[in-house]
Amino acid sequence: xDKNLLSEQIEKLGIYELRSLARSMGVQSPTSKKxxxxxxxxxxxxxxxxxPQFNNFGRPVKKLSNQNELLSHLxxxxxxxxxxxxxxxxxxxxxxxxxxxxxxxDDNPLNYNLITFKGIVRKTExxxxxxxxxxxxxTKTYVLIDDxxxxxxxxxxxxxxxxxxYMHSSKAYAKLNNIQYINGEVKENNIYDLDCELIIPxxxxxxxxxxxxxxxDFVDGVDGSINYIxxxxxxxxxxxxxxxxxxxxxxxxxxxxxxxxxxxxxxxxLIEDEASFSYDKILDAINHANSxxxxxxxxxxxxxxxxxxxxxxxxxxxxxxxxxxxxVKYLIRxxxxxxxxxxxxxISNIVLFYDYQKNQYVNEYNDLLTIxxx
Length: 374
Description:
Blueprint: H1 7-11, H2 15-25, H3 35-47, H4 67-72, E1 74-75, H5 80-85, E2 97-98, E3 114-123, E4 129-133, E5 141-145, H6 147-152, E6 160-167, E7 173-182, E8 185-186, E9 214-219, H7 221-237, E10 241-247, H8 252-259, E11 264-269, H9 275-294, E12 298-304, H10 306-316, H11 326-336, E13 340-341, E14 346-354, H12 362-373
Parallel strand pairs: 1-2, 5-7, 9-14, 10-11, 10-12, 12-14
Antiparallel strand pairs: 3-4, 3-6, 4-5, 6-7, 7-8, 13-14
Helix pairs in contact: 2-3, 9-10, 10-11
């Protein structure tokens, strides 16, 4: 590596490149130093204020010969959420790439284990970005997105991404390579407005739903809900509205039937046994609707169905169908409360309730009515 790199070039180097450069320039114990300390020491040696010291001790520089090896040594440093999902091998003492420090993989083969992916952007509590690939039913692949890529593509939480990623052959995660589409449009068009001024909506989507509002509709079971969504999404598309479906506790057959409806922009579905997974999916639906809203799109979010929503949240918060936990009610309020309208965009919500459940779940129905009217 060139030891005469300019200051701005040094700032862009990944942690492994910095360590390699620092060791070659005579910086002592580069593996024990933080990123800022490495940059400072390198610049001090360049300017002559620090004398280089060379010895044969210390850990050898790790050589990453291919993309697979890069992904073998990739972690989200200090982020509990993703550390639980992307675990280091037991007794593995090798150095790991700190993901937020944007390791430059340009020197690695670009065609190595490349996969296509589609997923909604998420952000953990510690600030790491990733998307869960939903192209394959029943599999989970976490596509990691570093800060430089977030800035490059101007991403926000809730954006629906389609592109390619480097997949580790034995792990459930991949590193983002490139994005082709954001919310169904070419990546260069990712322009949004986070300061949309909310207004009272005036336009009716149909005879019972006003733009930017929420309503409950009764349908005759699963097949009735599919027919309802197909009819309404077509009607709304003709008026310039995008349709998103949040399908909880749906079967693979139902998911495939929804996939065939051309007017649906995205289906956020849960075909899993893990209750905690449903919580993330509900947030995906909320965040994706908000992303479309900030991108000046009119959105209708279908919830399929009301009682599935209660059941999966009861499982998450260990409550029961007789007495729902406050967190269950809070998240349902958050989901339905996402309905809003501005001068250029809106989010409207439709909650589907099965006819045969109306008399059985009176309390839940009244709860939903209260939320919608508040």
